[in-house]
Design goal:
The structure is a single chain. By secondary structure, this protein is α+β, with helices and mostly antiparallel strands. The chain has a single domain, classed as Nucleic acid-binding proteins (OB fold (Dihydrolipoamide Acetyltransferase, E2P)), CATH 2.40.50. The protein is built from two helices and six strands. A six-stranded mixed β-sheet has the order 5-3-2-1-4-6, covered by helices on one side. It is elongated. The model has no long low-confidence stretch (mean pLDDT 87).
Length: 104
């Protein structure tokens, strides 16, 4: 009985870990995104402007193959969890990936 329980728990854990792995293609196809122009950069975030609104975007991205080095004037696409903290500037903290749309 213990072997069956252990096997069952192992299978659930394997499915859970596999389900959590995101790829760049799945993020681009399935996650909310916002496009904006980089106005300011720092070590841990970028400030982008989109539709006359400013967003502070965390550079602590989930996908490590995502870009995190930007220049002022770059047009970027930010893929995130859909949650935006309503502050000034707006804040996007859970970022899956950031891609460069148009370089400065």
């Amino acid at each position: 009985m213990k072997k069956i329980t252990a096997l069952f728990l192992t299978m659930i854990l394997a499915l859970t870990v596999t389900g959590c792995n995101r790829t760049m293609n799945s993020v681009i196809q399935n996650e909310p995104n916002i496009t904006g122009v980089v106005k300011q950069t720092s070590n841990d975030s970028i400030l982008i402007v989109s539709d006359n609104m400013e967003y502070s975007v965390s550079l602590d991205v989930e996908l490590k193959d995502s870009m995190t080095n930007f220049s002022v004037g770059d047009e970027v696409v930010v893929y995130y969890d859909g949650m935006v903290a309503e502050s000034y500037p707006m804040q996007i903290n859970k970022v899956y990936a950031i891609t460069l749309k148009t370089p400065a």
